[in-house]
Amino acid sequence: MNARRALFFRARMTGRDDDALRWTEEALEVAAAHDMVPWHNELQTFRAIALAATGRLDEALEQVEAAHHAAPAIGSPALVAWAGAVRGCLLAAEDPRAGRAASDVAVRACEDLDYPIGSGVGRRTLGALALRDGELDAARDHLRRALDAYSGLGYAAEVALSLRWLARLAQASGRPDAVDVLLRAGGGARGDVVEDVLRPAALDRRAGPPPPLTEALVLARSL
């Protein structure tokens, strides 16, 4: 099961979302067969993410609602918070107000638990919604916090994805110099459920080598 879980992440990072969905479904079968309830719950959220990425949003919402409903009985606050963060993002696709409210609750739960992976997803969702609405100060706060959550973990792939959202903030703020640096730092990483679900306008990839990460982080935090 752990191998399939790792293959899910690998497929997401390389844009092979059909493969990612297949790996989650196989892993779910293993978890169910061996009565691995916490793993099964987490894998349901991964399947929801993969379903959303392949355009099957209604099924994704059903899956994440099931995971979120079942999580409290497992006795893991982290599972509840994580399912809540994914749920908030998926809800935002059809109902931004409900998605914002659910993400806010999930972020607070994740931060109370010191669970930065969940808070990063929630903060990126809130930042993306604020950016869509032209609320640049709120977007700046949420996206910086998402970046800090992932950089504190040394989670390079999620740092890159967060830098790409901050490049969108730079564009909205009239900072073309920062857009160039942050996009090159963000590179072509894939696997952001917030991008998959909220589908922001594409930003052109910039030619040239990526800047030093420390330079990109300083610039992102100065926006």
From TrEMBL:
It comes from the Bacteria. This is Tetratricopeptide repeat protein. SUPFAM superfamilies: TPR-like.
